[in-house]
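PROTEIN SPECIFICATION:
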Amino acid sequence: MDSIRIKNLHCLADTGVIPLRGINILVGANSSGKSSFLRVFPLLKQGLNTNKRGPLLWLSEDVDFGDFKTAIRKGEKSMMFEFTDKSLIDGVKFSLGFNIVVDGANNDFIDYIQYCFEDQKIGVKINSKGEVERISINGEDFQVTDVVVVENKISLLHSFYNKQVVEQNSHIRISPYYNNSAETQILQKIDDLLEHKLKPNTVNLIRERISYRSISKKEFLLVLQSLNRPVKWHNLVKDWTEENSDFLELNNLDLLSKAFLLIEEAGMSLAKSLMEVNYIGPVRATAERYYRRQNLALNVIDSRGINLPMFVNDLSEIEKKDLKEWMLEYFGFYLVTDYSGGHIAISLVNERNGEKTNLADSGFGFSQIMPILVMLWTLTKRKTLRRRRPLYSDNKILYCVIEQPELHLHPGFQAQLADMFISAVNVAKMNGIQLKLILETHSEAIINRIGRRISEKKLDFSKDDVTVALFNKQLNENGTNVTLAHFDDDGILDNWPIGFFNAD
């Protein structure tokens, strides 16, 4: 995901477009909507691959929004989510937005989807029965009566199918909807343009050569004009412009024919992004003296860090050594586990004196920071050990969403944590990963340290790697106003409210 926009969730009337960069900092007063915004990421993820009655799973182990009626902003009737991302196949940047409403039986559903790429725009209107009522292509409305929405557990959005096929084959795997009616109209349009002087197979040949993928109007026109045969077709289209009425009609029909396939692809692409969301909640688990070992294969830390001892204990010796070095670099201590009698004890070792202390006997702040440190190491380094080249060649994107990372930490530790955030983004980059950290914080130390590192210009880290979103709660009924602050080259924040961290 390159950006996100949210409307009418809790106090968030309209966040505007929030770009997602390496480090994304959410700041503001209590109850200003920071947590609501941040928890959208695990909210969207937790409904994937899950049977549910509506488009989102509002309540799960990670985040609890209640239901649609408790999540929607007071007085509003619809909630909107909008994303920009890149498609699975072409890497084309697109935006995908959808509205959620509730019907008379208090069932929430998606009533409108908008999909945009390049200079093309698709809009789909859906009723409470899951039927497509209307589709809009670049502002031109088309009536569609034979399309029904069917649940797709993998994607965020449902798939589109032929209504009759669904009714007749409710227990059979069927293919997503392709608009054959639009296809027929395209063939008819080509035939009309050529004044019915070509054989049907020639018309079909032209159609096949222009039907590989929907692209921008400019590129689509170039495709049309690149066909040298038949001569009559070439002579017809060679002088067309993007404003030509016949071209626009053909472009819209072409887009109409595969609009539902394109939307499903966009939904699958977004779902793929969301599956890479890793979430750490605001209050991590309190350390215990001993943990009973569970015979589970663990790949990641859970949202409260409850499985941290088991996770660390099951690492290989090479992995434990690398994790140790990772923690020592910034904090001067590391984790060790002792396993006996079916129980695990996890301890901190101080680098200066070698003293080992059970995590339960350490300060509360240590139990709160450990899941964060181990999660960052897991996402950026664990899978790259023993490799001499980047793990991913396609610039894989991972998300780490953290609430209050500074909880119960001394300001000096908070600043060191900011250094680790920067390091994690840089290490991930070297390993072919785009790591996007989304942080809700009240820490002046974290913000100041990031600014300082930008000003020093010693790291592969600049102002362009940071987004700072200010959540300003309004005293009236307008909800929270979200604005963006920016670091300059000297690490100074502009658009930063005077006295933001003051008590008065």
In short: The CA atoms of residues 327 and 334 lie 6 Å apart.
